Amino acid sequence: MFDDFVADSCLIIYDPNEFGRRVLETLWLRFPDWFVTAFGMTYSDPDNPGDESILLPRAKHMRYIYQQEQRTFCHPRTPVAKLEPITVEIGPLTPFAELVSL
User: Fold this and answer.
1) Confidence label for 81 from pLDDT (cuts 50, 70 and 90)
2) Which residue in 17, 25, 85, 90 has the fewest CB atoms around it within 10 Å?
């Protein structure tokens, strides 16, 4: 998948449940009044969507189904004029992840 993302390294996460738990917990603590959740993507064929309704934040073209993407969604419940970038610190990843560089 390096070509998909124009990358020369990646993070292999061996325990996605622990990774997700840490990210969600950090976001809930930092943004207690925001809507925070995580979900897996739905992959669909745009030429044959079937009878299922497609929710855009969780839908992706079926050509990416091999990615098995998970997303974390963090959204203010009331409008914000300008959202600033945030940094999320979730502690050391070495117990359950590995950085691989080309």
Assistant:
1) very high
2) 85
